[in-house]
Amino acid sequence: MTSGLSSILDLSDDSFDSQRSLFTQTQWDELHARYDPKFDTPLYELDSDVVDFLKIACGTLELSNDIDCTLKFLRKSQEQLTSVSSIALKIAEHILGLTKSYNYLLSQNPTKDVTELDYYCTIWSPIFLLLFPPSNHVRVKAGESINSSSTINKKELYRENTHVKAFKIDFRFLADMGHEEYDICVGECTANSSDMKAVKDEGKLTREAKDAVDKILRAVSEKVNTKVWTIQTLGSSCSISMLDIFDVGLYVANYKYTFSIPNTTNSFVENISMILKYLLTMQRDVTKLANSIVSSQEPGSNSHGNSFNRERITHELNPRLHYTRDTYYTPPRVSASKLPHHYYGPPPPSILNKLQHLSGKDYVTRPIEDDNQSYDVYGYRPVGDGTYYNKFTKKITEVHPTLQ
Prior knowledge:
- The protein is an alpha+beta fold.
- The protein has two domains: 2-297, no CATH class; 364-403, no CATH class.
- Helices cover 37% and strands 20% of the residues.
- It contains ten helices and twelve strands.
- It has helices spanning 25-35, 48-64, 67-77, 86-101, 116-131, 148-157, 196-217, 265-295, 349-358, 371-374, and strands spanning 8-10, 138-146, 168-177, 180-190, 228-234, 237-247, 250-260, 297-300, 310-313, 380-382, 388-390, 395-397.
- Strands 1-7-6-5-4-3-2 form a seven-stranded mixed beta sheet, with helices on both faces. Strands 10-11-12 form a three-stranded antiparallel beta sheet, covered by helices on one side. It has a two-stranded antiparallel ribbon with strand order 8-9.
- The chain is globular, with a radius of gyration of 24 Å.
């Protein structure tokens, strides 16, 4: 509900307890067909040397099951690679080390009493710091920090309250510009999927990402890909999604990858390559957005010439800024919940005349949709904007083959 109140269409969750319950299966498939392609990002390709070293490491494990011997090989192999290429083997070494020494953290039902901080410090923090070392434009910030712009937005909504704070975020990947922090990835960490915190964090994550997109739009040109990543860790498992804005008052969240840290050598052999590709794909795109933010601003006076020691925007205002809408924030204690002020924009010109015509009638009869009658023999139906949705391929195309 909190995502919907924040103008977010959450396609990252296909469970029937999610926004999916608001749509028919056909409508839900059409939404995926329309927006999934907008989140396409090429999967990272590992260097050929890295691929060879991983094959040798996995072959050694299959032959001898000797973890110590394999760890030594991974460590020594890094010396033959560049600092960038060696990141993949460093992460592989870390993950295999977890399989050996922290196996109790890698099972669904841990044999010891563990906390979400145990998972973050032992499993996830080393991986994130390898992906984004200090020399990178991306900084990893952990420990329930708060996005300052979210706090400002929440204070505007709950003006009568004196102590207002926005979401506390478990970890964030940031681009720093002076004293300003730009979130490029936001993450939440829970001990397990049955924890109620995991359910609450899901709606929180999408709103955190939405606020991040809103702020980035004020800093970059329209040519920059502003998709913000989200990470939800559930014990030793990880779910990665993305969020961006596509139309007036329409943000869309889209699922990308899920993986678990291997708890056996067999699982390591089967999954390590894809795990590395997922992580390095995210690293590549996050770093690219950070570089765009840094390069779009420069120290000095702002465009109005009346501010000292602030960033100066070096481009025209992003036209997608007028798409943005306010975020719903849970109320401070002993306060009533409030809906965002800025919800709706003007109707698109394409339907304005029709709306004005209909507004003069007492009522408008809404046709009843019948999925069986709305498709032609080839499974096509017009979407309404000149494109066609096919129920067999579950894709939207620009043309109908038989109508050309």
